[in-house]
Write a structure and sequence with these properties.
By secondary structure, this protein is an alpha+beta fold. The chain has helices spanning 9-17, 20-32, 84-87; strands at 4-7, 42-44, 51-56, 59-66, 71-76. Helix content is 26%, strand content 27%. A 5-stranded mixed β-sheet has the order 1-5-4-3-2. The protein is globular and about 35 Å long.
C-alpha cells in the first residue's frame, strides 16, 4: 500500500526555506513515508496519536498519518527550539485538568 503525501502551506514554506542540503534530505525522508509512514526514525508525539516527527539535524518533520485514507499530511518542518516547537503547530502537551 502506498500513502499519498499532502503538505500544509506552512510545511511547503518551511521546506523551501531549508538550506539546500537539508531540503534534499527532507524531501528524501518525506518520499520514504509513501511506502512506510512509520519508519524506525519516527517518534509518535506525546498526547497526539497518529502524529509523528522525524529529526533532521535541528529541524523536525512533523506529520499526521491517516491509515483509513492512506494519507500522510506534512504539518510543518520547524526548527526545534524546545517544547514550544510543537505548541506553535497546535500540538503541545495536553494541559492538566484544573477541576
Amino acid at each position: 500500500m502506498s500513502y499519498q503525501i499532502n503538505y500544509t502551506r506552512e510545511a511547503i514554506d518551511e521546506l523551501r526555506a531549508l538550506p539546500a542540503r537539508f531540503r534534499n534530505r527532507a524531501r528524501s525522508l518525506i518520499e520514504g513515508l509513501v511506502a512506510n509512514p512509520r519508519p524506525a526514525t519516527a517518534k509518535e508525539l506525546d498526547d497526539h496519536p497518529d502524529y509523528y516527527r522525524i529529526r533532521l539535524e535541528k529541524w523536525r518533520i512533523v506529520y499526521l498519518v491517516e491509515d483509513d485514507v492512506l494519507v500522510v499530511s506534512i504539518i510543518g518542518i520547524p526548527e526545534k527550539t524546545g517544547p514550544e516547537t510543537y505548541e506553535e503547530l497546535g500540538l503541545g502537551r495536553s494541559p492538566e485538568s484544573d477541576s
